[in-house]
Design brief:
about 55 residues; 1 helix; mainly alpha
Length: about 55
C-alpha cells in the first residue's frame, strides 16, 4: 500500500507529519477560540439583559 519513497522517504514523511501537526494545532486553536468567543458573547448578552430591565 505504501509506495517506495527511496531516498526521499524522510522528507516526505516529515512533511506529512508537520502538516498533520499543523492541522491538529489549528483545529485545537479554533476550538479554544470558539469557546472563548462563546463565553464573551454570553457575558455581553447578560449585560444587555441587565440594562434592558433597568431601562424598562
Amino acid at each position: 500500500m505504501m509506495p517506495e519513497l527511496g531516498k526521499y522517504a524522510f522528507a516526505v514523511l516529515s512533511s506529512y507529519g508537520a502538516s498533520l501537526a499543523l492541522i491538529v494545532a489549528l483545529v485545537g486553536w479554533s476550538i479554544l477560540r470558539g469557546r472563548q468567543v462563546k463565553r464573551q458573547l454570553a457575558e455581553v448578552e447578560a449585560r444587555q439583559k441587565g440594562t434592558e430591565r433597568s431601562d424598562g
